[in-house]
Amino acid sequence: MNATSTTWQHRERPLRLERRLDFADYARTRDFLEAVAKASEATGVYPDISFGRTYVNITIHTEPPATDIDPERTAFAERVDALFASEYDRRPSEPPCSIPC
Amino acid sequence: MNATSTTWQHRERPLRLERRLDFADYARTRDFLEAVAKASEATGVYPDISFGRTYVNITIHTEPPATDIDPERTAFAERVDALFASEYDRRPSEPPCSIPC
Fold it and tell me: Which range is the signal sequence, renumbered to this chain (chains A, B) (predicted)?
C-alpha cells in the first residue's frame, strides 16, 4: 500500500491510476489544471485528463510492458494529491458578501 | 448545413457536437486549452474536454429537451474552429536550428 492507494483507483488492462476531483467553481478547476500542467512539464509525466466546469478526471497510464505503477507515476499522483489537498479540497466558494463589499 | 458541420461530429443520444484536435507539442495544447477556457468564461458555454500531451477532444452537450444544436453552442463551436485555424492548425513545430542558434 502507498499513499495513492486511498485516493486513486488502481485499474488493470491497461494498467493505470485514475482519480476524479470536484471543484467549487470553474475558476478553481482552471487553476488546478494550470498547476497540473506545470507538474507535467516539470516531471515529464503527461496524464490523460478530462474535465468539465467543476470536475477533473485524471488517468495516469503506464508504459507497457509495466506490471506495476512505477515510482515516477506514483510520485506524480502524490503530487496531484498534495496540490488538491492544499488548495482545493476544503475551502468552499467564498460566501457572497452578507454586507456590501 | 452550417460551418460546424464539416469540422464537428454531430452525435445523438445525447445530442452533442464533438471534435478532436491535434497539436504539434504540449505547449500548444496548453495554449489552446487556455484560450478555450477564456471563451467558456466569455460565453458561459462549458464543454466537456479531454486532453493528453498533444490532443484535445471537445464535446459540447445540449440541454435536454433540445432537439437541435442551439445558436449559442454553434457559435462556440465556430469560435473554437476559428481559434484552432488561426493559431494551431498549420504551423508545424519550429524546425530545429540547422545552424547553431
Answer: none
Residue range(s) defining the domain that contains residue B20: 7-87
End-to-end CA, chain B? 48
Q: Which of A53, A39, A49 is nearest to A93 (CA)?
A: A53
> Do B32 and B87 meet the contact criterion of CB atoms below 8 Å apart?
yes
**What's the gap in Å between the CA of B92 and the closest CA on chain A?**
20
Is B93 among the domain residues? no
| Side chain identity, residue A8 | W
In a domain, A72, yes or no: yes
Domain membership flag for residue A52: yes
Cell, residue B33: 486549452
Mean pLDDT, consecutive 10-residue segments, chain B of 101 residues?
80 94 95 96 96 96 89 96 86 53 47
How many domains is chain A partitioned into structurally?
A: 1
| A26, A41, A53: residue with CB nearest B26 | A41
Is the ipTM beyond the 0.85 threshold? Answer: no
Q: Which residue of A has its CA nearest to B36?
A: A30
Gap from B101 CA to chain A (nearest CA, Å): 23
What residue in A sits closest to B61 (Cα-Cα)? A52
CATH number of the domain where residue A22 is located: 3.30.1360.20
